[in-house]
Please model this.
Amino acid sequence: MTGSLQIKGNIYYAVVNYTDEDGNRKLKWISTRLKVDGSNKRKADKFLRDVISQHEDSKVIFSKEVLFSDWMLSWLDRMKSNVELTTWEGYESYVRVHIVPYFSVRRIMLTDLEPKHLQDYFTEKLKNGRADGKGGLCVESVKKHKRSCALP
Model:
C-alpha cells in the first residue's frame, strides 16, 4: 500500500493506493480533520503513515480457530481509521451490543459461518432485538445490522 497527502478545502487528506480482492487498484481518501497550516503538516504525515501501517498490519489470516464474533471485533478496530467517526460509532454499537453477544454464545467459527446463521440472527433481531427487551427491531435497524456484518 502506498499513499500521499492531498489538500481539499483547506483540509489535509490521506490518499491511499491499495489493491482490492479482485486485483484492481483503488484510491481511498481519508480526512485527517487537520487544517492546512505549517503546524499540522507533521501531524498529517504521521496520520498517513499510521493509516498505511494499520492496513499492512490488518491482513487477516483465516484459520479454523477464529470465532466470527472475534473477527467482528477485529474488523471494528480496523474500520476506525477508514470511516467517519459517526459511522464507526454506529458500527461499534451494532457489533458490541448485538452481533458479538449473539454469535459469541453460539461459538460459530468464521470458516463455518453460513448464510443461514446470519438469517437466523436477523430474524431473531426482528423478533427480540431491542436492548431494553421490549420486542424486536424495526426493519431499517436490521438493514443497518446487515451492513455491519462485514464478511471477508
User: Anything to note?
Assistant: The longest helix spans residues 85-106. The mean pLDDT is 83.
